[in-house]
Design a protein that fits this description.
single chain, 29 strands, 359 residues
């Protein structure tokens, strides 16, 4: 396995931590708090070519969760840049979502008045979100929760408002535990749940895959924590689908769904984590397919300060490249974002640093 080196693009103060970040071609948008005040979240952006230049979007985004929350608790669980003609930032605040309109996709970010949608159950929290549909005048999002619910909401950019849709109501409560991850692509959805199922919504039908068939070490727990997928067009109306599923104390499980709808385990991409048992749900797997390529790029964080990268050639069912980055210090690597075909950004060093790796 080859070794790669990344470099730190941004580092917060020692008394603070980064909840999460997202990336555009020019900017990092960051949600940050003091360690002792995790519910007071500052939202700001920095230029990639000048990380010292910081512009505040909101000094306190107004989290309604109990202000007595323990130190260094991740409240903001994700952010997305959405929109086609105009862009907006979507922030997962655990109790709901905030949308900040930014105006034109050209030029600098311009902050306008935000709007919020709140979960109907105050005992529930949003664990993950993704964009289901992006149009000129609206963005539809799928939200999944700790209590196993699936919501679809629409942000209307013209009216700057959010409404609840009835789409995907038949996915609500399909999982018997927390749904911790959702990915959407071309009208399809993949869900990962602590019940160790991956659920896939394909052609308006629900399919599921359990990890029980994978050889496991029974002395440690194995839990599905994330899912990502790609669709690869094979014929005019047929697709291959590949799902990258993160399982604690194993690594990334790569599933292939054939043209006939059969699921099979293509690869077990193991992490070298023998020194300690994996316990965090933050570690994720991501999968990317380059245009015109026969290779898939799969990436995984870890709890030991390592970032793992594999390239899988699906035509011949073989791993053609694997590498790992050993970060400057130990700790969880997560919030992996691929900003273009060759640039990876990720969160490291106890949620204090955003780093970049070119592959």
């Amino acid at each position: 396995m080859d070794l790669l080196d990344g470099h730190v693009m941004y580092q917060c103060h020692t008394d603070s931590f980064i909840h999460c970040f997202c990336s555009t071609s020019k900017y990092f948008i960051i949600a940050e708090s003091l360690i002792e005040q995790p519910t007071k979240v500052v939202l700001f952006y920095i230029r990639k070519d000048d990380p010292t230049n910081c512009t505040i979007i909101a000094n306190d985004i107004g989290i309604s969760i109990n202000r007595d929350t323990a130190p260094h608790v991740r409240i903001v669980k994700g952010m997305l840049i959405a929109g086609t003609g105009t862009i907006h930032l979507v922030v997962n605040t655990s109790d709901g979502i905030l949308v900040y309109p930014f105006g034109s996709t050209r030029g600098n970010i311009k902050n306008n008045e935000s709007c919020k949608w709140t979960l109907p159950n105050v005992q529930d929290t949003i664990e993950s979100m993704d964009i289901d549909e992006d149009a000129d005048d609206h963005t539809d999002l799928v939200l999944v929760t700790k209590l196993g619910h699936v919501y679809c909401v629409r942000y209307e950019s013209v009216n700057n408002r959010i409404s609840t849709l009835q789409r995907y109501k038949n996915l609500d409560n399909v999982a018997t535990d927390c749904i911790n991850s959702v990915k959407c692509s071309q009208g399809e959805i993949a869900l990962a749940s602590f019940d160790n199922f991956v659920y896939a919504w394909i052609d308006r039908k629900l399919e599921s895959q359990h990890i029980s068939h994978i050889p496991m070490d029974t002395s440690v727990d194995h839990t599905v924590t994330s899912v990502d997928f790609v669709k690869i067009k094979k014929y005019s109306s047929s697709f291959l689908r590949f799902y990258a599923v993160n399982v604690t104390n194993i690594g990334c499980i790569l599933y292939k769904r054939s043209l006939r709808g059969q699921w099979e385990m293509a690869q077990v991409l193991a992490r070298d984590e023998a020194s300690a048992e994996e316990v965090t749900p933050l570690v994720q797997c991501t999968i990317h397919h380059g245009t015109g390529s026969n290779d898939l790029t799969i990436m995984s964080g870890s709890e030991s300060g390592k970032l793992y990268i594999w390239k899988y050639r699906y035509a011949s069912d073989e791993i053609t490249f694997e590498s790992q980055l050993s970060a400057a210090s130990s700790g969880v690597i997560h919030n992996i974002v691929m900003s273009d075909a060759s640039t990876i950004n990720y969160l490291m060093n106890d949620d204090t640093c955003i780093a970049t790796l070119c592959i």
